[in-house]
Fold each of these.
Amino acid sequence: MTYTISGQYLAGCSCAVMCGCSVDAQPRDAQGGTECRGVAVFHIADGRLDDTDLSGVDFAFYNHFPSHLTAGDWKVGVVIDSGASDQQADALGRILSGSEGGMLGELTQFIGEFAGTERGEVSLTDGERPGANVAGHTQLTYEPLLGPDDTPTTVKNAMFGFAPEYGIGRTSGTSSAFGLDFEPAYGEKADFVFSSEPAAGAPKGRV
């Protein structure tokens, strides 16, 4: 079986700007804590698993990283938008669990606890005030960090990243799901492509 999903994502976590998880560093928050609690909300603009069309489906991926990423023992949970059909939810659940292989399959070696999959209203908003919402769980507002030329600051070619290059910034709001409560601080935003077949020339170790 083969899959490809692509679109946009927005992530927020408890780490102080900036989050070191992308380079396998020890997480740090503003209070001196050494774990990362976060969520990444995705909109699939185009995608499918074999004959199942996944275009238009939104989902949220919650994480608890108790130390640097390769130390493992992650706790993760997923919320899939209630607008997705049962067939779409099943297909996406298989992709996110890693059972369909590809780059997401490579991450299963680090997961210590899968907290489950829920259905609920999940959405992304763009424009001047980008944000993400998971009804009853999470509200994020994103503000990009700007460089000297007033364009968004980006990270490129990170060891662990949802995209080859992504913008970084600050998030505000609230989040509570799967027992993972946190106050958003760091944020990132980009287009993404996940596939069962790695892109030509993609370095090993990238999410």
Amino acid sequence: MALDFTAIDFETANASSASACAVGLARVRDGRIVATAGWLIRPPVGHDRFFELNIGIHGIRPEDVASAKSWTEQLDDLVAFAGADVLVAHNAGFDMAVLRRACEATGDACPPYRYACSLQVARRVYDLPSYRLPAVAAEAGHGAFAHHDATADAAACAQIMIDAARRVGAGDVRALAELAGVKVGRIEPAEAAAA
């Protein structure tokens, strides 16, 4: 198998995991980033209030997403980009919760993606004073980037996994997870997760 996966990053409008307002994606094939994409999202109704704290982090305002596709309208685009890849995110628990909870809020079927966490991998592969995305990305040889721009964050996450795989001699995400001692999880629907 080859080192193929899609890195993903969400930005949210507020403290609700369902409040996705931007997504960034980076496709990796044979250990190289071959495509990136990103777009704004109109958060689901009831989760669409923008908190000043979140705006201060990512700079996205309500007027920026007013004409963006809704969660439901953009979900097919997200799935088309990621295909059947394992998703990778830096602090994957957050990003997978956004995917699941936004689908719950809109009644959309949540794709049952397998996923891995570059933060967990980084903690096992690197010895750093901080495991925040910019610090780990720098250690992985990724240049300066616009942190909290979803597409830039996804590309940085992808580079971390590529570098970590090289360092431990892993040929694919499953081998990297195994060598790093972390799990490849699967998104479960809320009713299955609660059972």
Amino acid sequence: MTKRGLHSKKSAATHIVIIGDIVASRRLKTSTRRSVQQHLLAALKNLNRSMSEGLLAEFTITLGDEFEGVLRPEVAGTIIPDLLWTMEKELAGVPIRFGIGMGGIDTEIVRSPLEMDGPAFHAARTAIDAAAAEEKMGGVFMGFGCENDLILNGMARLLYYHRNEWSPQQRRVANLLREGKRKHEAADILNLTRQAVSAYARAADWAGYAEGEAAWHMALAVAANRMVAAA
């Protein structure tokens, strides 16, 4: 193995591996697929830059339109929801499935996930395979403990269904509100009245979604911390 590692020894600690895959990418026209791949590369580059402090291994294209990265468990509650949201935003209209696995890593911790292996990778692979076989979107979680897997998967599915029902304009409003913009700021950016922004937010049930996502953040953090403590 080429040692390009962040650390020089094997890690018995618990980590999180995320595998993402564009749904049915081989069915896309050649020109469309090339454009999607370019957008994917740009999105992963932005993720690696913006989330660098939480990454043990940067997100890398591993096979075809599949990508993979390794997270520090202490950032699970913030990075995972942000990552899924960002990828859906950056590749709007391109469905992406995710498998999220938690466990140990048997090899050295290195910059590229291609050079690592262990239970965390096996859990993520099982999760992404389940996502494909069962057509589950919004992230499939495995390795966080049976009870936590059930909670995290249930919340992931509900939140995905919620935001997948939004119209393009509702999603644009939600993107800005999630970034922390106030309604009058979102109105200025979208060239709408504040009343219109409020109407779109109500129609999208943004308040309900934000509450649900906050609970998901907390559930992820608690599950990851418990697994680290038990390791």
